[in-house]
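Narrative progress, year one. The postdoctoral researcher (J.K.) led the effort to move from monomer predictions toward full complexes, under supervision of the PI. The following entry was the first complex the group processed end to end, covering 726 residues in total.
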Amino acid sequence: MEVASRKIKKPYLKMSTHEAIWGYVFLMPWILGMIFFVGGPIIASLVLAFCKWDLITPPQFVGMDNFIKIMSDPKFWKSLYNTFYYTIFAVPIGIVGSIIVALLMNQKWKSVRLLRTIYYLPSVTAGVASAIIWMWLFNPDFGLINYFLGKLGIKGPLWLASEEWSKPALIIMSLWGVGGNMIIYLAGLQGIPRQLYEAAEIDGANIFQKFWNITLPMLSPVIFFNLIMSIVWSFQIFTQVYVMTQGQGGPADSTLVLVLYIYQKAFKFHQMGYASALAWILFIIILIATMLQFKFSKWVYYEGELKK
Amino acid sequence: MDYTSKNAGFWASKKRQERIISLILFIIAWAGACIFVVPLVWMITTSLKTPTEIFTIPPKWIPISHIKLDYETKLIAKASGRVIISKGEEGSKIIDIIKDGKVASSVVVPAVGTLLVKDKQLIKSGDVAAELPETGIVKIINNADGTTILRIVSKADLTIQEYNLPKGIRLKVKEGQKVKVGQHLATILPQWRNYLEAWAPKALNETFNTYLLNTIIITVSAIIGVVLSSTFVAYGFARFRFPLRDPLFLLMISTMMIPVQVTMIPTFILFKYLGWIDTFAPLIVPTFFGGGAFNIFLIRQFFMTIPYELDDAAKIDGCNYFQILYIILLPLVKPALITVAIFGFVYNWNDFLNPLIYLNSSSKYTLALGLQTFTTMYGSYYHLMMAASTIVLLPVLIVFFVGQRYFIEGVATSGLKG
């Protein structure tokens, strides 16, 4: 009887309480984690955003004070600008780049496994070490990048030491990590049924028509997911900037990104309330960005069978 | 077969068209791969150089330098005019060439050189003003710190040329040997000692022993936490039916979009009240509470592919839920567990923000934090910074090469289709 009842989906009301209890038992670590490390802190952080607290004296409710101050804080606007600047360039370039690499890695060459390894490698080395490697590559006088630019007859900029070029440097560096997304697109590409291409070939479609009319629409749900996550992640850029600027966000605040500013306010100046308000602004921006993407997601093509 | 291309031109042959496009793509793919690998190759190359080898233009790709006896034997006048000879330091002579009452050019002739001009003589631009001997005798001086001075002297024991060589060289000449201009004197070998120096930096209180040990403790504990708890939770989501299961699952997926910065500050305060600041607990304990939405999702996807009949058969045999999980299901989702463990390893090994917030004393630092501190002290010692970076990255690279199929298959099988 047990076996039979498994196969037929039982309505919720008839669910065995025994099974439900055990389900919750196994979910318990996550539920507790959700309460203590996600939900609780989110609410606490919202409360803190309306308080003034230096961790020494008791917190003080100050109403909208933090938000009012933030609105006239030039450093906040600068960090917001820097974060948007980085996101607006790094995300689209990264997505186009990783799709191109995924298309290349979907070919049937003997060396394709080795190539995938090479392209994926930098995304596991992300962190302090790779930031240091790029500091060296971006060295204005002896760095490889300016050396090669010099060979092309271009006088390389000062990169991380220049107000104008420090953000482009971060964007270029982010491209090194396209391998992580490449793997996701590759999985998506390999899930596209061959028959679609074969049918198109019979109709006489060329490579570009096949890409535009089959590959791109079939890949669009993956692109959509990836776009959302890439924006979430790029709003959180921190480690590279911290390492490359010794936690300063220089020169002249040109790399002071929002998360770095939150970090400075919270853990250097111990303005916990102000920092929480900043964190909530970041959260709301990410929420709005995500919702906008859902609203304008008509371009995403869902094949019938993928819809549940 | 061939008449199509003859009649309809080169591009009409579909096969040939595809083959040419494939070749072009192949070249592009490899060119890109070369660019991608450059930063890591450059890291290793730089880590094996001497400080002087770092700052050379053009850059050296192989960290080996050949020292050749190299100097101008003929000192040539760079201007025309009248010669005035005066005495310089250490027995050297200075030839000034005077033109229109001003010094137009000046040549310093070391004591070992022979003057070919006389005082007040007229000289033309391009004339040889002095000569240095073309051969010399090798003198090797070993310094107490292990470095070597290689001095090439004339018969009269005057120095022709001197080289300060670092440790880690291979001498190609012997003491007292006669050498000619252009002769190979020594080879500077890859400086493996940079790694020793980076491992125990003189300017820092701690060595990488400490950082490595701390990182291993944290990473291993975190991996255990992540694998254990995400397996439990995934099992709950995949194999049980209970009220609110699907909304909870959706909630879990959407937490991936919450930036850590929102929870960071209250979590910090919580750990501060628990007295856990400057301990490993804030980095380890949370991993036992869920293990991350992505990991739960990945393992659940694996569980979903296993037929329920297996569970039911085990249940009839008297297994409880834990036994079903351990005996029946876990062996079948092993690849997913390895994937989660490897991702957990990479994430925790590279993590910077959390250790930065929670660890204060340098004896508690992880590799990432230690490396960052290292760069603040050794900002222009790129050879040492690259050696330290290589030390930090090496375990990640090894894990990656050993377990690379889990990285790639892990993402592929999780079916991130939404």
